[in-house]
Amino acid sequence: MSPFRLVPHTADVGLRISGKTWEEFYLSGALGLLSLCGAGGVPAKGKGCKRSITLRAATPEELLVDWLNELNYLLSAKRLLPVSIGFEKAGPSEVDARLGVKRGARLEREVKSASYHHLKVRRERGALRATVILDV
Amino acid sequence: MPLFRKIDEFRFELPRQGGMRVPGLVYASEAMLPKIERERVAEQVANVAHLPGIVGHSLAMPDCHWGYGAPVGGAAAVDAAEGVISPGLVGYDISCGIRLLRSDLYAAELKARIPELMDGLHARVASGVGKGGSIRLDERGVREVLRKGALWAVERGLGERADLETCEDGGFLRDAAPEAASERAAERGRGQMGTLGSGNHFLELQAVDEIYDEGAAAVFGLFKGQLTVLVHTGSRGLGYQICEDALRVMQRAAGKYHIALPDRQLACAPLSSSEGQEYYAAMCAAANYARANRQAITHAIREAFSRVLGTGPHHLGLRVVYDVCHNIAKYELHEVDGKPRRLLVHRKGATRAFPAGHPDVPALYRKVGQPVLVPGSMGTASYVLAGCEKAMKESFGTACHGAGRLMSRTQALKLMPGHQLAAELGRAGVCVRTDSYKGLAEEAPAAYKDVDEVVEVCHRAGLARKVARMRPVGVLKG
Predict the structure, then answer these.
(1) ipTM field
(2) Chain A contact for B248, CB < 8 A?
(3) pTM (two decimals)
């Protein structure tokens, strides 16, 4: 089963993500965002480096939006393509991730931001699930 | 059971229910309504009607469609003293807008040179995902842009003072506070000045093919057969970041000020609060970036024309007809229940449309009303309208902003591949240049509503009257 699914939206794009654990859940979001941006390929000659993302938020919804926006910032503003993601901590109110990234990310699509529109992180059928509308 | 109550041929009311503070009002034809109802636009119009301080109606223009938080094509006015400001009701691409340039050229006479012109424009106007512009700014430079908007570009030699005379707000918002933009926002603005971007942003060469109002067209400098240039872009990554920063703050503010809303994307703060004022100042700064961006692109267009046609821009008559945005919140004076009232009018995918005589209409156009620029899709017409008095009375001086999307990008991609679409448009006389055929396919004309119908509703409902119609002859898509 794909860890994410793109959901049609008239003007934008919905990203349906899921995971049995918080790590899987945030990873699902990251993979979905990378796929949506068309950033699946690794720049072969891109120089590698490490990045950390440490986030705290009052609710899992805010944290999910922050997580996706932070990744989007690395991709679209810094042109850094995540090639590995490891979690030191992952939960409903905090994420502490270590990323291996390569410079020179080439994107097919620009994502403006993740929105809070009707966003609800819920546990359903043994997995964490959410649908995020992304402005593209 | 129908959601809307028919008022007349083009107005449908969404009655107050639940926590709605005012009713909703949708401008549409009977034929448009089923799609609007299916798309849950009513739900989003109703959500906006929950905003504290909202007056009149929560509005949706004829090009409205499902958005996030608010519908695209939505507008709402709140009392300036008691109301709130909502970044979600402005959108991420702050002050995204349209600029129309006219020329002294006839499109038919240049038909054979359109491909050359498109190549020249493609080379000089950075477009597409991740394409930086030729103008690089340091942080101080970005903050100068945020303060001065299009004036910054003109002072740098990227245009003339006369360009600003026919821009909304004279090309920049004086309420901007450059320091209100975060460091990250400023960083994102450093390399994107003079860039078109991707998605639905475009640059088009168009030919005026119909004049509806000879008097107003003459005042706007438009004539039949004329070659014009239409540009659609906004504040780029800087604007997205300012909206993103503000939405995070507003999630807290909504709780702090006990504001309950059905959708967190509409999170807001009182205008009088520090959170509200900070966002307003930052939003104005982002709006200035957008206006400078369109001015810098104007300069690149003039350079491309001059190089390809071998003559200076003055001989070509490339002048700004108007520059107007469709994602913004602005303080305006309107009459409510017979009394003048200062309001903050939020427009998300909706265009200001002020009538003749209004002091905010450029002096040159004050006798006929503000130009309202309505782009269609790359295969259909675009329109120049003029603001009407009725819009001031009913919609806080607001009209539509485009055709409005009809289908999702996924659906659009299934219609036909981008290469095929470019070839079809070419056969129809539209010369296409793009950096992404996939992106082109997502913007297929069939993915949009019928712009003629949208404009007809605006015209017949009295929101804005038709002045001229233009057909695309060249399209640059990011």
Answers:
(1) 0.94
(2) yes
(3) 0.97
